[in-house]
Amino acid sequence: MALQAQHISSLSCQQELSEYDVILSAGEQISCGLLAITLQSIGINAKSWLAWQLPIVTDDFYSESKIKEVKIDCLQKSFSEGCSVAIVAGFQGVCNNRLTTFGRGGSDISVVALAVAFNVKTCEIFTDVDGIYTTDPKIVPKARRLKSISYDEMLEMSLSGAKILHNRSIQIAMRHNIKLQVLSTFKESEGTSVLPNNDVLEKHLVTGITYSTNEVLIAFTDLTLHILKDIVGANIRVDMIHNASLVTTKCDIDQAKKLLGNNIDYTINDSIAKISIIGIGITSNTAVMYNIFKVLERNKIEMLAISTSEIKISIIIKKEYAEVLVKDLHDSFASLS
To answer: Domain-by-domain residue ranges, the chain?
Structure first.
């Protein structure tokens, strides 16, 4: 249904995006009702709730809305009347009596926001994996599950391609000092705790390596401040700037093309990957950067762009080398830990 809506319209206006959110939120609503019926059938007093019934109040930025307030009076009243399980539809809120959604993976945002509203200190999130790994175990079978990870590191991993937790759910947990416990829906496991940096007992030189193929490299003949100002002013995300090139996301590229028009000389490379190496204080340890360059040189992989922060080093390479580089970097840093 969502794809049909995209074929019908470019979904460029607020009214169309509002209707799109109605379509997107249908799955969660159906799942809530089915789960409530299933629990009731085995004697558990469960009740489903949709965002507008609480309500979870958001802004009107449809498909990427942000929460303003979570009201739980209805839930508390229901519990006092004997309800033992409340099933709240994730990923959605309400603004001016219209449904809104939080973006892909937004159910994480819903549950952490509810944890804040109920003033709990631990929020358990059940997913299709049994915790946070040092990298994608589908690519590197030797990837190690972390017992704990800091908010800052988890946030960087989420922003850099790891799809375990929505970055905004981590930000909310960090702001309100809520421990997140990432657990498996399908098997018993202690999972991974997401904690303040000082509470993480196991410290590693490199905590994780992520990769993303959602980036696009735009190379200009002359990248001026005027061009950058116009791009950022149009709410186009700029992830990295390297010489006369910048990196944005694939979902922003159509808007960037429209803005740049035919009067500016540029080329687009969408066959790239971003590899990010994450760990507290990695840029102050020269061994990390040395290892990255050594692995790139050994595999004869050209580095198209690089950016660094206190806890992350990101490099842009050709997409065809992404998995090879992730494997070699993981093996290389495992030997240093």
So the answer is: 1-120, 121-202, 209-336
For residue 74, give both structure tokens: 């209805």
8 Å CB contact between 275 and 218: no
β-bridge mates for residue 253, sequence order: none
Beta bridge partners of 277: 209, 313
Asked if 57 and 111 count as a contact pair (C-beta separation under 8 A), the reply is: no
Say whether 121-202 and 1-120 share the same fold: yes
Q: Write the single-letter amino acid at 148.
A: S
Domain 209-336 sits in CATH 3.30.2130.10 = yes
Nearest to 149 by CA among 162, 138, 137: 162
Residuewise pLDDT in 10s, the chain (337 residues): 445 544 444 555 567 788 888 888 888 999 999 999 999 999 999 999 999 999 999 999 888 899 999 999 999 999 999 999 999 999 999 999 999 999 888 899 999 999 999 999 999 999 988 999 999 999 999 999 999 999 999 999 999 988 889 999 999 999 999 999 999 999 888 999 999 888 776 678 899 999 999 999 999 999 999 999 999 999 899 999 999 999 999 988 988 999 998 888 999 999 999 999 999 888 888 889 999 999 999 999 999 999 999 899 999 999 999 999 999 999 998 865 5
Distance CA 23, CA 9 (A): 14
Nearest-angstrom CA–CA distance, 195 and 193: 6
The CATH classification of domain 121-202, taken from the options 3.40.1160.10, 3.40.50.2000, 3.20.20.70, 3.30.300.20 = 3.40.1160.10
Q: In 3-state terms, what secondary structure has residue 327? A: helix
Contact (Cβ atoms closer than 8 angstroms) between residue 170 and residue 119 = no
CATH architecture of structural domain 1-120:
3-Layer(aba) Sandwich (3.40)
Overall residue count recorded for the chain in this entry: 337
